[in-house]
Design a protein that fits this description.
CATH architecture of the largest domain: 3-Layer(aba) Sandwich
Largest sheet: 7 strands, antiparallel
Radius of gyration: 18 Å
Strand content: 25-35%
Low-confidence stretches: none
Bound molecules: flavin-adenine dinucleotide, FE2/S2 (inorganic) cluster
Distance between the termini: 28 Å
Helix content: 10-25%
CATH superfamily of the largest domain: Nucleotide-binding domain of ferredoxin-NADP reductase (FNR) module
Number of helices: 6
Number of domains: 3
Shape: globular
Oligomer: single chain
Order of helices and strands: EEHEEEEHEEHEHEEHEHEEEE
Structural class: alpha/beta
CATH class of the largest domain: Alpha Beta
């Protein structure tokens, strides 16, 4: 179930270099949302027709609010336009979109976020805690000392960190942080760059764990109609011989063994 909604900006602040934290009033979408889903955000400029897919970093159905944390990718981009939004401005949304994460109750979880894959893991961590679904350990991978949302993760559960340059936490990747801190679990839930997801799939395979990954592909329609966002499935659909999966509609969350990474 999804809906189109004109959202009103409640507040926006910078979280660090080029990272913005946008809080929106969008009661209809907030009511339907699930952790791991995303919204299509439409730039107001007429020359930018395509929406930008942004994950839900948080939502509050009672307050009717959504939280998006996103990176501005460059000058004259749609995300740069979003970064100028101020309280009271409006912006068109379509959502919630995609399947979101389904947590296996009682199975000890390792939540992994890398780079701009960090934001969606915060809502998942909060839901796991609030609903007491399972034990969890959070693993966050950053490039350097420019961490964001880290203090909020630490308030939810035990959190370990890696950074490419070693400025915070373990030097190296999320896997290095998992090994250095002896993090154990039954299931991995992850969002981040493809090399990280691939490494996590291989790690989970070696340990006999399940691994669910949230994929990022360029999108156009965001609702399953245009096939701009397909990734390859590891097995053929019995009826159509189709090996494609649409990240926007069949994902963005997949069992890591079901798709080619
Ligand atoms: P432009 O150069 O103006 O974009 C041009 C076009 O290319 C637009 O249609 C844009 O949507 C598309 N595009 C460019 N880069 C990407 C990309 N990496 N992925 C998909 N489409 C792209 N980013 C965040 O910062 N925070 C998030 O929470 C987040 N969640 C995402 C969830 C999903 C399911 C997906 C697919 C992507 C997510 N992204 C997120 C990436 C974000 O969508 C892109 O960074 C953004 O669309 C780039 O738009 P732009 O206006 O900055 O760039
Ligand atoms: Fe059109 Fe996924 S973006 S099918």
């Amino acid at each position: 179930q999804k809906t189109e909604e004109m959202a009103t900006v409640l507040e926006q602040q910078a979280l660090g270099s080029n990272i913005f934290d946008l809080k929106l009033k969008a009661p209809q979408i907030a009511k339907l949302a699930k952790a791991g889903q995303f919204v299509s955000v439409y730039p107001n400029r007429a020359d930018k027709l395509l929406p930008r897919p942004i994950s839900l970093c948080g939502f509050d159905p009672k307050e009717g609010s959504l939280r998006l944390v996103y990176r501005v990718t460059g000058e004259h981009t749609g995300t740069e336009e979003f970064s100028r939004l101020q309280a009271g401005d409006t912006i068109r949304l379509l959502g919630p979109l995609g399947n979101g994460f389904t947590v296996e109750p009682g199975k000890k979880a390792i939540l992994v976020g890398g780079g701009i894959g960090v934001p969606p893991m915060l809502e998942l961590a909060k839901q796991i805690k609030a609903q007491q679904l399972c034990e969890q350990t959070i693993v966050m991978g950053y490039r350097d000392a420019n961490t964001f949302l880290l203090d909020e993760f630490e308030q939810v559960a035990t959190t370990v960190v890696s950074s490419d340059d070693g400025a915070v936490g373990t030097k190296g990747t999320a896997i290095d942080a998992i090994l250095a801190n002896h993090v154990t679990g039954d299931v991995i839930y992850a969002c981040g760059p493809k090399p990280m997801l691939r490494a996590l799939r291989d790690y989970a395979r070696a340990k006999g764990m399940r691994c669910f990954v949230s994929m990022e592909e360029r999108m156009a329609c965001g609702i399953g109609a245009c096939l701009a966002c397909v990734c390859q499935s590891t097995h053929e659909d019995g009826h159509s011989n189709v090996k494609n999966k649409r990240v926007c509609a069949d994902g963005p969350v997949f069992d890591a063994e079901e798709i080619e990474l």
